[in-house]
Every structure is written in C-alpha cells, then in structure tokens.
Amino acid sequence: MKCLLIASESAEILFHWTDQEFQQNVQEKYRSSQEEGEGLPAFEDIISTLFAPIIISCGTMVYRQGDSYTSFTTENNHIYVLCQFDECLYIAVNGDGEEKEDDLRRKLYVMRKITEVMFGMVTLSGSLLRKELRPQDTEQRVRLWKHLQSLLDTYNYLRENDQSFLVEAVERLIHPTLCEQCIEFLERRLVQQINSSSQVERAGEEVLHTFILVHTKLLAFYSSRTASTLNTSDLLTLIIMAQNMYPSNVELDEPSPEVQDAESTSGSGPESFYTPEPSPSSRDSSSSAEQPARGSTPVFEFVDPDIQMAEDSLHTLEISPPDPSTPRRVFLELKDGQLPMVPHSMYCLPLWPGITLVLLTKVPNIQLTRSVYSFLEDFTKLEKCLNEGQAGSGAARGQLNMHNTRSKLDKFIRDLGPNELQCVQLLNVWTEFKNRAFTRGGSGFNKDLIPLCKSMKTQLCSLYRQRFLTESGSADGPRCLSPALQERAQTMVQEKLMDWKDFLLVKSKRNITMVSYLEEFPGLVHFIWVDRSSGQIIAPSLSITERTTSELGKGPVAHYIKSKVWGLVRTTRQYLRKGYSTVTLRDGDFYFCYFLWFENENGYRLEAGDIPILPDDSLPIGMLGYDYYRKLLRYYGKNHQGEAVKCYELLTVHLGVIPTEIILQHCRQLASKLWEPSRNPLL
Amino acid sequence: MAELTLPDSRRCQYFFLYDGSKVRGEGDPTRQGICYFYPEETPSDKQDLLCSQLAGVGRCVSELSSSRVSTLRLRRCKFAIRMKDDFFWALGCSVDTPTVSVCELLDQLIDLFCFYNGPVRTSYEVNSQETLAARWTCFLSHLLPGHSPLTYIFSCLRTMDSTNVDPLLLLKAALILQACQRCPLVLAGCILFKGRVVSTQLSPELTMKVMVHESETYNKAQRTNGTSPPGSFGCAVSSTGVFLTPPELQHLQSPPVNKDSSSHSTPQKDAPPKRTRLSRTLSDTPSSESEPSDPSSSHSPLKLSFSPHLSELDSVFSPAPTQSGSPTCSPPPPPPPPSSQRRNSHEAQEESLDESCYYSFHDSAGGDSQGESFAFKANPRLNGGDGSEFDFSGPSANKTMSGDNEVCCRSTKGHMTEVKRLTPPPQTFGSNEKSSLIPMTLYLHRVNSLVLVLLVEPHFFSDTASKEEVYHSSLASLNGLEAHLRTISPAAPEPPGQYLFAHYDCIQNTLATNVSGRAVGAPEHPFVRATSLLHSHFCGTETLQEAIIRSAGTAVYGTRSVAQETFFQQLGGPPRNSGIPNHQDSAFSLPSKARHRLLKHGVNLL
To answer: Known Pfam families for this protein (chain B) (predicted)?
Structure first.
C-alpha cells in the first residue's frame, strides 16, 4: 500500500507511482462509488479524482491560513505526508506499516532531488516543470513515468536493503592496494586517453569524474584536476541511476561454487562468461532494466513478475528503448552549492553484471548556466522585493541591481545570436520588461511588474531547457562521446579488472566482516561509522538473502537484527533533530549507542556545540534528498573559523548483558580504530 | 536552521466540534455545522475555514484509507481528530506537544462530555447549543491546566503527596469509602481534598471525570458565598447524573480486591472483630505496626489505593471476603429505558449545576461535634443490625463478573495503557454508543475542602433510607479526616535542587515530580522537552527499557517498566563534553544517580 504523487496547484497529476496493492485498493474504492455498468476510467483519472479534494484544500490553507498540511494519519495506521516544493505538491502514502512518516518525507525529498538532477533549472519554473513531467505526447509520458517509477523502486529497494542508503553515505570497497591501482589507472590511462582524443570523437566533451561501482560500493573514484568536487548528494543520486540501469541482482550474481571451480581450472575462458557481447541487440537487453520491461527478469526479491506485468495498464504500450550509448543528461552541483544544476553527461558502461564504469563529462557552453542562474536569482530577488511591497529603499536598491542586470542581460541576449526562436521570445519579454520598468512612461518598479518577472524567469528557464535538455538542440544528432570511444573505455577497464572481478563481486558482499572485530570487542553485534564531512560509511556487511548466509546467519535472527539497525537509525535521527547528539538505549536484549561529534583536521576533538532544533516535519536528516550534515557543519563551523571541521557518527549494537562501562569503552576504541582508514580521502 | 522554540503559552490552539449532518447541500453555510469552537473569539471566517477544510480533508482521507483520520498536522499546529457518525472533533496543539498526548487529551475531553451529558447526538437534540458550549468550555478549562508543563505530556491525577501525609489518614479515607460501599446502591467512590485525590476506588480515568464536577460545584459555591470558605455553607450533599460506559461499569462491579490473593478463611476469622472499627474515628484506628506482621494478611500489589500500607490492611479490613462466601449475586442493574432515564438525568444535572439541588441535612451550625455524635449513633446499625442487607447484596458481591477476569485485567493494565495511547479507546467510539451508555448518579458530600464523591445507582436518591445511611455513616469520619488533613502543612517547597525528576505511574495515572510550573524558559525547559520526547518514544517502542539522551548542555535519563516511567536530570551543568564516546562521561552515571537520589521520593528503580 504505497503511493507517491506530484500534483500541480490546479490539482493536475504530474506524476504518480503506486504499488499494486494501492492501485487495486483505489480502483475498488472507485468502483463502489460508481454506478453499475460503467467502465473503470484510466487509473490516472481515478487517482486524480480521489486526491483532488486534498490537493485543493492544501492550496486553500496555504492561501488563506498561511499554513499547509504536512501529514495525516488514520486509525488503521495509514500515513499521508505532504510537501510543497515551489508550485508542486508532493504526496506520499503508506498503508502497510513498512514506512514511517520520516521515510515518506525522505522519499519525497529524494523524488525532488531526482527531478533536479534530471531537469536542472527547469524545476525552478512551475509551468515548465509541469510540461517536463507530464509531456503531451503519451508515448513520451509513459516512457518518462516508467523511468521515474523505476528510479523510485530502485531507491526504495536500496533504502530498505543497503546500509549506505540507509544512512545516506557512500561505501567504499576496503582494499587499499587495488583502489590505489585503479585510481592510478583511471587517471593515467582512461581519462587521459579520452580527453586527448580528437574533438570530433568526443564531441567537445571532457571527462571530469569517473568511478567504478561494484554494486552500490565504490571501488575507485577519480576527478580530473580541473573539476570541482562532486558532492555526496549528487554521487548517491548517480549511484541510484546506475543501479537502476544495471540493477545488481543479489540472488543471481553470487558466483555459485561450480562456476568458481570452472573459472579456476579453465583460466582463459571465463572472460566471455559474464561479458556482454558488444552487439547492439544484447546491449539492448542489458539496458532493458532501465525500461519497464523489467518484469521479465526477477530483479528484486519482492517483485513478483506477474504483478509487475499487471501493475500498470501503460505496459501495453510499446516503448522503444533509447540507444544505450546515449548518455543521460544530469545536472550536478558545483563549488559546494554555489552553482547548482550544471549540466553534465553521464555514461554508464557495464563491465560485468554488478560492476559498472561511470563517466561524467562536461558539456560545451557550460558558462551559459552560470549566467542564466545569476539572472534567475536577480529576478527572484526583485520579485520578492516587489511582493513585500518595499517601495522605498528596497526597490531603489533593487533598481540599482537591476541596472546592472540590465546591461548584463542585454549583452547576454546579443551574444546568444538572435536567430533562434527561443532567443526571440526571451528578447520580446525582456523588451517589454525594460519598457515597463526603466522608461519614463512605464509603471516603474511596483507590483505590476511581478507577472513580467515571472515570465522572464520562465523564458530564462526555457532557454536553459532548450540548450541542455532537448536533444534536438543541434542539427547533427545527439552530441556525445562516440560509441567507439565508449567501447574503448569499457574494454580498457575490463582488461584491467579481469583478474579481479570475481573477487570484487564477493568482496562487495563481505566488504567488512564483523568477525574481525569480535575478538577485540566481545559482545558487539553491529556498528555503523560515518564520516559526514566526506560522506563515507564503514559498516560490517548486513546483506541477508535467501541463498547467501550472512555472519548473522539467515532467517529470523538476521532479519530481526537488521530491522533493529534500521529502527535505530530512524530513532537517532529523531533525537538529532531535537538537538541530542548522544543517545543510548536499552531495548530488549540489546544496548544501542549513538554518538555524533566534531573534530578538527588533526583529529583533535572539538567541544560539543548546540545542534539546531528542528520541527518534526522539517527536512529529512541525511545527505541524499537534502544535505543536512553540510548545513550542520556550516552551522557548527561558524564558531570555528579558519579550521576545517569534521563530523563523525558512530552507532553500535551490543548485547544487553555486557556492562555499560565496557560498552562505552568499546565505542571509544572503535571510534579511534575506525578513524584511521578514513583519512584516505574518498574523492 | 534557527532554533525553534515556541513561546506560546497557550498550548491548545484550537478545539472544535463540527456536525457534518447539518451541512449537506451545496448552499449550506459552514456556520450551521459548527457546534463549538475554541477559542470562541476566533473570527468566524477563520472558524469556517478551519472547520470546512479540516472536516473536508478528513472525510476525503478517511474514504481513501477506509478508516477514520486520527491526526492531521499543519506546519504550525497539530490536530488530534476524532470522527463519529457525522461529528468531527479536532483538538489543535502546538507542534512540540507529543502526538500521543494530544490524542489522549481529545479522548479525555470527549469522554468527559459523554460522562456528564450522555451521547453527543442526543444531548445536542435535548440541550441548546449555548448550554453545551458552556460545558465544553468548562471541560476544556479542566483538561488544560497551566500548573506544570509536564501535565501536557502526562495526563495525570493530582494526588496528595503521600510522603507528606500520614499513611493512617490515607487508610482512614479508604475505610470511609469501603464503609459507604456497604450500601448496595453505592458502586464506588473517591475522596478528594482541595482538588487532590486522597483515596479512590475508581479507575484513574473515572476519578479524573468525577473530579471535574467536584471542582465545578466547589467553584460555584465559593462564588455564591463570596470569598468566605465554604465552611459557613456547612456540609452539603449534591448530586448529578452521569453516564458510564459498559467497561467502566463492569470494572466497578468487580470486587475491589484481588480475589486470588485474598484467602477465604482467615479474614473471616479476623474480620468480624475488626469490622467494628470500620467507621471509627481516627484515634481508634489500630496502629499500623501491628498489621503488617499479621501472617494472615495478604498482598494485593496493584490495588487502586495510594499508600503501600493500605494494600495489606485492606485485605484484612475489606468486607469483600465475608461477602464472597455468599452465593447470591445481584445482577448488574438493568439499564432503564434510555429515553426517560436520559431526561431524568439531564434534569438532575441541570438542577445540580443551578445549585437548586443542593440540599443540606444540617444547618451550618451543625459543626463537627454534632456530626460525630450522629456517626456514633449510626455505627451499630451499620455494622450489626442491618448486616444481612449489606452482607448479601453488597456491590462487591458480584462474584460472577470478577475472578480471573479481574486479575487478568489488572495485570495487563500497564500494557493496556500503552495500547490505549496509540489507539483511541474503543468504548467511546463503539458502534452503538447511544445505547451503550448507562446512566448513573454522582453523590457528593462536601466537608469544607474535603469531598466524598460516590457513584450511585440512579434510584439512590429516591431511597431515603440508603441516602441517610450513607450520609450518617460517613459524616463523622469525614469531619475527622478533614480536620486532620487541614492541619497538614504543605510540603516545604524543595530548595532549588541538584536534580529534576518526574515519576509517572501508568497504572494509577499519577505523577510525582519536583518540576514546578514556572515560566517557559526556566531551567526546567530542557528537562520537559527531553521528557516529552522520551515519553513518546516509550509509548511507541514496547521493548525500550531505558535511555540516556544528551545535547550539548543537558543529559536526561529515562527508564520505564510496565507500570511506570521515570525521568531524571542532574542539574548544575554537566561539564562540557566533546560528544565522543567516553565511559568516564558524567552522563552515563545518571542511572546510578537516579537510583540513589529518587529513593527518598519513594521511587524505587531497582
């Protein structure tokens, strides 16, 4: 019983995602209220009808009460969470008890993050985002919604099963030698070779970042010297996207003993065993997971193929998969948030099932982003000024700014070249704006200018959209690294990692084993250590699948401990939200500890500072949908100017019979033990 | 990321009752459906907006989920919602109040209304909207006390500080109640002193409801008599009609002591001679030293009385064992035809509110001494003469309804309390509330600040013999008890202590704390905030036993068992810490400190 939907202010459904149960439930509801003999309308219409009163009431409350709904709960424990992002209302519903309110809010923020990464600054304009999320063309809409729905599925699966998505930090494979070799290889061989190939072959693009993923874990990450750092939020989103394209099937890719035997004896054969043939047909199938036809392969444990197939009537439409060599356009943040949503191209090259090479390239004309963004900011500021009715000094100041903006924008439009339709429209609106605002006969800076401000913003966004989102931007087909170049990159890395791939696949399941800690820390059941400054997690593996046995064994005990760990993370977030950075809990047979602390770069412990107290329904605590820890570090860093502040978290699960003093001693020792490996910078 | 503290002193922001059946058509104004809105000075367009939007969204969500909405949150206010028939209740509190507490508060409010007015639909048919609005206001003001910020977290009964009162007085009070119960028409009762519970036989929820009427009549009496204490008014008896839910009635009709733990033979041997003491004045009460050594005395650890001494004494003193031998059981009184009864009780209640029902057995000149003599005269009849009547049909003789049922009921009470917090009590919102509420009458006997409140059968007041008997048998003892309680000096206010604590008893619904009701922002504020969080967490996680939470400036320890929750904070500023795990950290010594320090408050955490 899960549902997520995005609605516009006019109660139009811009996107929806529901599970089978919710869909059936809603259809029942509708059928019972319908007269006999009438056919059931499209699911989208049903959901729109049923949710319309909520959406409209939400708008009324914002407009008349200046307050908005954040959540509803019912007596049978259904939870509804609502978030307003700009002009869109996001609603998430859960009726099966698997998600709590915080999870639902997190999901909404992740959905928002995904749209930002996919549509960039277009999300800043409500009307454009509406068109983008709900294309007129049915086939296009079906394809887009399927893609978004499967991204959400992937995220849901990862959050429920992967510790790094539970705490929202990146996990690395702990194998220093191999990591180092790979980074060196990426730098000296791969990136250098691609970036030094001919302009035509790489279509003016330049590789900025590249990384190798083994399932969701990072084997190696290399950023070119000119690139600015990739933040954790973006990296986690990219991992979701890569996982969505090439889902790692936990059940299937565990090499069975026979296969391992065969490999160890034959020696030369195995490379063809996992390597997808480079013919287009097989590549289509390997990328089909990205497309809705995923039902045919049981990707996740919880997906019943029949249900998946029946899930949506939209399945009936045939969708042609896009060319796999076409990169995804992603919009990433640069310079620690100062320049958001800069377009990049993302190439996901599968090496073997479960192992993926990702290239992030800079696209040409990137400076346009900077200009558009600064103009958008100017107009937003002006609109805010006008809205608050600051006629006097505020508007005067705004005017000053606007004179500066005026000359810059004039130059900007001149440089664009006036031939394109988009530019003509922009120029028209700008001319009208100038006539109103700056000429004597115009109305000057008052509230009448607000609609023009809005349409200037829309025009700017739509220029940005046309330049970076529509593939028809250039006449000579999509611009990207040539397929040959991509193939070369893929082969190079495959050759490099050939001898390691089986090791890597196993290692990713047993990255850190609890058994190596047991002697030193008797009674310790599990721990999670997170470096929030770099967004890295270190934790013993907790993967529980049917075929493989984790250290906790399988069956109820393992599942119980896993659910306890997941619950603990949820609980400690609630306390952190209220300003508590240390929590210890005696719960059943276990003793849980949570610590958050700050250090400077040399590992010197800084005094605990006050942590902001936030309302329950505020943004989720994490790094993916919203980077809470970056804000926290900035907030704390205010009192530590000139020092690089680091933030760490430690969660432990002990057996309850261990005396508390020993447990606390363990925590302290663990913290200092784990501190060392993290000194290797992630990026 | 600025710190969000709410300076709002009025934590309850809105309360309203909306009747959807009055707004059916498109053109019907929302106004028609609003039965009550608090605060009443809210502009009417805002009232309309909140009622229509919340009720509309509530209905829509209920339809989508096939279940009633229970909470609805806005960014600045959180609402507990109850929906029943076409009625829609909403109670809006500030967002930092725990959700469980808001829901509990609303349930209490509705229960309270039904207790005094009967089913909501019928009371709105019978009474004018203004009359009922005044009642809602009254109930609301009772449930939203401002004396301690903790009362918003724990809805609890105010009791006498048992560490400050001679346990014998508590025993005395319990005995008075038991003596009254010997009249077959008396179900159970409680004794209150200055708005605090001295002794009660009722469940905490019922005691809370009963107290509301007591303080209302007390306030009115004070108003009519100017500022003079009601001593000049003399001993007054009043009554009002009330309504019980079937579980409440069943609970009352089960015997007051745990049958499993009281043996049948020994008390019968011991009881007769001691029973003569039932109505004696305090000076004659046997000394407490001798009783615990009595080998035949047995324990009933979860009794609804407050002093630990009582549990032992009561089982000896209680008339229940003697009656338990008798096979006759009076069946629960057949519920009279609802319509006529309802009207009667409504009349009765309105009369009592108008004070026209206040009748006094004696002049104000009657005084204490006269009361004493009456009591002595009454004694022989109570204990000997009419014994048969009491012995065979006492209210506690309903053996059929008790036994295992009762035992199990009590032992699981702790869990039930938890469950109840998460889901609204089913009895209030049962499918046939209308027919299931059973009319009863409340009997109040006031002696200055002391009040004896009894739940009696509706025909108690027409039965002059029983009425007089109860009156006379209790009068002297009440006077004596009042005189003693009056002399107790209020506990010396604790010096600004080394620590703060709150000890909540989930079974008895009582709270012991040294947190005073000072302005928000006082040093207690962090403690209250932590307690509120921990309480919510305890409510939501059954397996959680103890927790320590620490921010930069405060560390609070919380622990709970099935029956109680305890919260403790050491004051005096813990040394600044780095937040890094450190076993020498003072925060982790809180459990042992709490164990040590709270012993003198009668809180045993071992």
So the answer is: Intu_longin_1, Intu_longin_3
